[in-house]
Amino acid sequence: MANFAQYVAKETTSNLWRNRVTTAAAVFTVMISLFLVGASLVLGLGASNATTAWEKGTLVSVFMQPSATAQELAAIKAELDAYPFVHGCYYQTQHDDWLEAQKQLTATELSVLTEADIPSSYRCVPNQPQDAQLVIDHFSGQPGVFKVNAPVKTLKTLQRIITTAQWSVLIVALVLLASSAVLILNTIRMAIFARRREVAVMKLVGATNWFIRVPFIFEGLAQGFIGSALAAALVWGGEGLWRLWGSRVDPGSLVHLMLLSNWQLFFTEVVVVLVGMVIGALGSAIAIRRFLDV
Amino acid sequence: MIKLENVTKTYKNGTVALSNVSLEIEKGEFVFLVGSSGSGKTTFLRLLLREELPDSGAIWEAGRDIVNLPKWRVPYLRRNLGCVFQDFRLLQNKTVFENVAFALEVIGRPKSVIQTQVPQVLELVGLADKSGNLPTELSGGEQQRVAIARAFVNRPLILLADEPTGNLDPKISEGIMGLLDRINKTGTTVVMATHDKALVDRMRLRVIELDHGSLVRDQMRGVYGIDDVGTVG
Prior knowledge:
The structure holds 2 protein chains of 2 kinds. By secondary structure, chain A is of the alpha+beta class. Helix content of chain A is 74%, strand content 8%. Chain A has 2 domains: 2-54 and 155-291, no CATH class; 59-150, Alpha-Beta Plaits, CATH 3.30.70.3040. Chain A starts with a helix and ends with a helix. Chain B is built from 8 helices and 10 strands. In chain B, strand 4 (56-61) and strand 5 form a beta hairpin. Chain B is globular.
């Protein structure tokens, strides 16, 4: 057994070295495609992190007409308190909203506004994030209400953009993965061709089929593994840069919200390495089936 | 040791390589297989090696039915068979020692066995002093000796030789023949396909002649050609 392990290690490394140019091509293609797979995973996990964070903090704002009467304000408050989908609300006066507007609007926009033009508002937390739409539908158009809104639409748009990006990256990654499997297949085919005399002698003297096959399988696995290990390193580095960026921006920003937990990063790396080894095994298995006559 | 019963082999293109051949070869025998090119000698050897399967008929080797042998058992069958070819089939990038050791390595023999058996067999074929040379540094006769050493290092029950002297001059051929004879004397059954008339006539061993796939002669203490029988007596 120890002999066999030694033999496989020797044969695998000498095969890889002998075909080093094609091996390098296969390894780098595996690396790039798996880096993209990893990037797509990071994006997907990040998007779900951000969505969760946003949903937790979803606020529905019921803006009242600046001209709303005290009765109208009281009626809406009473109805909000009684409404089953609302967890709780607080009231922002016109002055509070004017201060908030000053932060969000540009100087030009502000120059045409006065505090009296700004609506006061109830800021409510729905029971469930998805209840926000119900609150919007129920209170829009009620007497004294100017407008009801929640960041639902913005959220959806952002999610859509991230999902599109994720799928595009994934499709490119899959095409590249297919080509890396073909490249690995080709290097194994060349290795089989280069060793055809040895294989013929091995068959003649009674080497078992698995004894002949295993070094080639390991060669494919090694290519997949080296490529995926490099890809995992790239994903790790990329994620590290993202973390650095995330630590320097506002905690409420997208970049920060999308940051992965250590477990998520670990999961991504494991997937990347496993996919790489599967690609390697697949490439060599096909090559052996088609080109190695044992 | 080897037994064929009504063995027929036809190739896909319609060529009848062997037709209804039955024969038996005892343990320790030395048999010459003669016949013109295309008579079926090589097919005969390939069937014994189980590189081919017959269309019909049965083949036994060392008591085993090799036609119905499962595919995964074939390597174990071949460990009992040594094989030598006209073109030597040595690995050019390995030394004499490594070429012979390779045959033991790939069937999982431990290093200690390799270290003792390889020098022994190289001594037997008279190449103990060339163990570090590459095949390209050897003469044809020496290369064939390496091939024989490789075939014999695992002490097979049967040695199959397909025109082992086909590429060698008569004097060298004599040496190779002597070597095969010595291997035979150790109890190994030898089947040798050959065109070498002088050799066959001098050795006076069992001769099996094939013609267009049919067994036309099986003669103890035979000679190369049927026409020679009368003259040699």
